[in-house]
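Q: Could you fold this chain for me?
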Amino acid sequence: MSIKVKLFLAAAITILAVMVYSFWSEQHQGRLGAIQSEALTKNFQAINSAAELKHAFVIYDDLIVRFILTNDAGLAEEAERYKKIAGDRIAEIRKSTKSGTVIKLLNDLGKESALYFADVERMTRFYQETKFPEGSPIEIVAVWSKRFPQQKQSLTLLSSSGRSRLTRIYSICEKLLDINRVEIERAQSWIEDLLEEGQKAFGWATAIIFIVTGAAALLLAFSILRPLGVLLTGVKRIVSGDLNFEMPITSADEIGTLTQAFNSMTRNLKEKQEQLLRETITDALTGIYNFRYFQEVMRRELERARRYERPLSVLIVDIDHFKQYNDAQGHEMGNVILKMAAQMLRETLRAEDTLARYGGEEFVVLLADTKKEQALAAADRLRTAIETAQFPGGDKQPLGKVTVSVGGAAYPVDAHTTQALIERADRALYKAKNDGRNRAAWT
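A: Sure. Below is the predicted structure, expressed as structure tokens.
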């Protein structure tokens, strides 16, 4: 039974009192419904747009880094698509808002993103145009040795500028999210004010109606205020950040329909947040963690190792002769090898170990609470798992199969900082390659 029918039945019992109350209730419900269906929905849509905007910048940055490392034109095209998505989201937010603060943030975001994209374009163009000069080997070395310091300095400046601007872009996106969260809280405050007004008016109406029939008044109060109270409780929990909470649908009227729609909207927001988190910390090709997230985990684990005086080891795993495999089998098969290798490494490692893609054909592994001797054994297990696996086209590799070289370093015996541990493991990796590949080495 809808709210209108309930009001009509109450009016039949006491026409004058219930007609007055019905008129007020209609207005009150309309205002409350407008706030809930328009203000909340609009701001949740704005939060989704702002989250997708930040997600587009995150993916764009990751694609550009991979394009620079691999020179894969497909990655550049995909990056341009996410660049367009970012522009579309900015346009959506600008079109849907009247807030001067949001417009100013969007203007700042437009400027920062334009400069950031310009830096990225210069950097990618710089990488594409940087080639070895022609001539004899001696002439090439002589010319390259003169260019390299300037090129390195230019790349460093471009990268630093882009990182700074990207950080500011992320900050502006977070501010846009915060503004919409504040708007949702404001809508909640409006709902509370309307409920307070409704409770006061309902008290007077109940007193009048109770003279004629207290039962009708109690039924009306129970059927309207109880679902509103449940809805308000749910709004408070969701606004506080509890997206796992789902409001019970206590009625089949308009409030029940609104509660159902609110639950659906909350589930969608939760799914988008979880998807954004997954895509932010994982490598798109292999499905394992990316190096940026690995560095965060490693900093935490290293701090824990220092505090409790526990060991910690790092391994860098590199697929041997990967360039030859790509040249012979093609980049698509190269991607297949990377996915298969990542899966085998993950299955060989312990559940508490952290595996991430380091870049290109390299992977990095964090072994918590693991001494040097234990890490050496783990490195050999990883090497053996790859060596004994059946990879398509592996028999055409220089070693007759797909193999990996592994370099390792341990805390505290080899180094005491995150950067130093990775550098020591990297040097050990080069030692393994220089010694003939398909082996594990330690500096």
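A (continued): The CA atoms of residues 181 and 239 lie 8 Å apart.
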